[in-house]
UniProtKB/TrEMBL annotation:
The keyword Phosphoprotein does not apply. This is FAD-binding PCMH-type domain-containing protein. The keyword Lyase does not apply. InterPro entries: FAD-bd_PCMH, FAD-bd_PCMH-like_sf, FAD-bd_PCMH_sub1, FAD-bd_PCMH_sub2, FAD-linked_Oxidoreductase, Oxid_FAD_bind_N. Keywords: FAD, Flavoprotein, Oxidoreductase. Residues 478-487 have a biased composition (Basic residues). Belongs to the oxygen-dependent FAD-linked oxidoreductase family. One of its GO terms (molecular function) is oxidoreductase activity.
């Protein structure tokens, strides 16, 4: 074993030479020698998560992945992963970033209706192949999202009302662990890892390949956005509760969102629908949102399949560069009008007062709750199985000056929603992410959507050196907490 590199900053030439000596034969890039390749590899949808890893490696084989992991353990580095670039795992100088883009093969087993794909795929790559075989896969709503972060993080979907969470549809996976071994995980082999990777985030190893259940049936749906004036919010909430929720099935869902639309950045209450069916059925459900309350803009259209649906949010998700704080997801049992109006007031006041943060949004994902609640709470690491809606509070800042303001907006908004949930149900909401650190206890205040104690035990046993990064791992793993100065 080589002697761990403990002096920072890192001499990348020596580091690369040691990695080569350890047997890595793939491409390896440092910031100083191929800046364009390096910049492309570290690019994130949220610019503030980019970081400056010591090296970026591009493994092409499973053995190359194993070599990098064993090297990182021996030399005292952590491993960061990149697929779609939407994750928030920190990348510091002691990080080796593993770009998984070479692991992007997709194959379909028509007999079992199962799809197997590499851990470096984006959902668009999976949808292209599955769609050609007439199959639907429960995956990300935007084609550029990576499969690994989505599935290991639970995975809400337009299809969740019918088929459950994305992680519920994982049949098996292949992983490379902290000791460099490559294993199969399913409900018979390495069952602890199979539990952990379905909602416990990517902190137990590098997932080389997933196999998921797919489904036949129509993939045609109305998508897009209906926009309303702020003074229509109360009436729109009445429509949701009196007209939509009572008739909603697993074939339709909506997202209620608060956003400012360019070029004037006027505040808009948005309804983003997903309605499956024939033309008559789609028209009838859409009419719920256009008859009593007239939208001021209608950007909806009928997408012919899952591929087209996944490109519907290109303008919102494709553009990198903004400094987004997406670490305040939460859940709520219902869309209570008093809660929603308070969130609206808070969002509108914040985005008006801080123009640099007017890209901040709040999204209430109102999928049919039955599908999400259809699994037992201990079936996967994603234990949030009580009937609920998923809410994303995203603080966006365009410059570092307002980063803290956008982060506090996101966290405080999630906490406001959580307070209403507690008031109405008597139970704490499921909240997760980086969260608010209690300085007195060095603990994070969020109530996780996972069994934190069970996840911690798996993490400590399977990754004893804390080599694999994830926001949750950094809050639970003893060695990672030491690096953060929390233990």
């Amino acid at each position: 074993m080589t002697h761990p590199i403990t002096a920072w900053p890192v001499n990348v030439d020596k580091l690369r030479a040691r990695l080569t000596d350890a047997g890595f034969t793939g491409r390896c890039v440092a910031r100083c020698d191929e800046p364009r390749v390096y910049k492309d590899a570290i690019a994130r949808w949220a610019e503030n998560f980019e970081g400056l890893p010591a090296l970026v490696v591009f493994p092409e084989t499973e053995e190359q992945v194993a070599v990098v992991i064993r090297f990182a353990v021996a030399e005292g580095f952590t491993i960061g992963l990149r697929c779609g670039g939407h994750n928030g795992a920190p990348m510091q100088e002691e990080t080796i970033l593993m770009d998984m883009r070479c692991f992007h093969n997709v194959r379909v087993d028509a007999a079992t209706r199962r799809v197997t794909f590499g851990g470096g795929c984006t959902w668009g790559e999976v949808y292209d192949v599955a769609n050609a075989e007439g199959l639907t896969v429960v995956g990300g709503g935007y084609h550029g999202v990576g499969v690994g972060g989505y599935l290991s993080g639970g995975g809400y979907s337009w299809w969740s009302g019918k088929y459950g969470m994305g992680c519920d549809n994982v049949v098996s996976a292949r992983m490379c662990l902290a000791d460099g071994s490559i294993v199969t995980v399913n409900d018979e082999q390495n069952t602890d890892l199979f539990y952990g990777i379905r909602g416990g985030h990517g902190q137990f190893g590098v997932i080389l390949e997933f196999t998921v259940q797919a489904y036949e049936g129509s993939r045609r749906a109305l998508t897009g956005m209906l926009g309303y004036r702020p003074d229509q919010l109360t009436s729109l909430l009445e429509v949701l509760h009196q007209d939509f929720f009572p008739v909603r099935t697993s074939n339709e869902s909506v997202v209620l969102g608060f956003m400012r639309l360019p070029p004037n950045h006027d505040p808009v209450v948005a309804i983003m629908p997903w309605i499956q069916g024939d033309d008559t059925y789609i028209a009838n459900i859409k009419n719920i949102f256009t008859s009593k309350v007239k939208p001021v803009v209608d950007f909806t259209h009928i997408a012919k399949d899952q591929v087209e649906i996944a490109h519907g949010a290109d303008k919102m998700f494709a553009a990198p560069g903004a400094r987004r704080k997406i670490d305040a997801p939460t859940t709520t049992a219902d869309i209570w009008p008093d809660m929603v109006t308070q969130v609206w007031d808070k969002w509108q006041e914040f985005t008006e007062a801080v123009p640099d943060c007017r890209g901040s949004v709040v999204l209430f994902e109102c999928h049919d709750q039955a599908g999400i609640a259809s699994r037992a709470c201990n079936a996967t690491a994603w234990t949030a199985r009580d009937p609920h809606y998923y809410v994303v509070c995203t603080g966006t800042s365009m410059t570092p000056v307002t980063d803290e303001l956008s982060q506090m907006f996101a966290i405080e908004t999630a906490e406001l929603i959580g307070a209403h949930h507690l008031k109405h149900t008597g139970k704490p909401a499921r909240q997760w992410g980086i969260g608010r650190l209690n300085k007195g206890t060095n603990e994070f205040t969020y109530t996780y959507a996972t069994d934190r104690d069970r996840i911690k035990e798996i993490k400590e046993r399977r990754d004893p050196h804390g080599v694999f990064q994830s926001p949750m791992g950094q809050q639970t793993h003893s060695k990672l907490r030491q690096r953060m100065g929390l233990a």
